[in-house]
């Protein structure tokens, strides 16, 4: 799966910013199989951070519409005020994400 292929680089980014206040990594799953999704979260290959499941656009509290979620994998950079800075941010494996995060912290 394309999302899981990015896990190693996502974990590296998290480690790089682990002591930086104001940086949160949110992972939104659209997995319909809740059992499989929860099992994945117990595996040490996935990145840590905030994990939520948004299997439906109509789900209460859905992030689909406010954050323009259209497909996976999708990476979005959001500033500390909750505004979308990059709706189609680079994938962690691009090598560009750390600099983009640093720029938001200035």
Short description:
This is Thioredoxin-like fold domain-containing protein. The protein is of the alpha+beta class and 106 residues long.
Description of the molecule:
The protein is an alpha+beta fold and 106 residues long. Helices cover 30% and strands 12% of the residues. It has helices at residues 2-5, 7-16, 34-42, 97-105, and strands at residues 26-29, 50-53, 77-78, 84-86. The strands form two sheets. It has a two-stranded parallel sheet. A two-stranded antiparallel ribbon has the order 3-4. The termini are far apart. The mean pLDDT is 84. Residues 2-84 form the Thioredoxin-like fold domain.
CATH topology: Glutaredoxin
DSSP strand tally: 4
Show unreliable segments. none
Shape: globular
SSE-based structural type: alpha+beta
Distance separating the two termini: 34 Å
Annotation keywords:
106 residues, two-stranded antiparallel ribbon, Glutaredoxin, two-stranded parallel sheet, 30% helix, alpha+beta, globular
Helices and strands, with pairings:
Layout: H1 2-5, H2 7-16, E1 26-29, H3 34-42, E2 50-53, E3 77-78, E4 84-86, H4 97-105
Parallel strand pairs: 1-2
Antiparallel strand pairs: 3-4
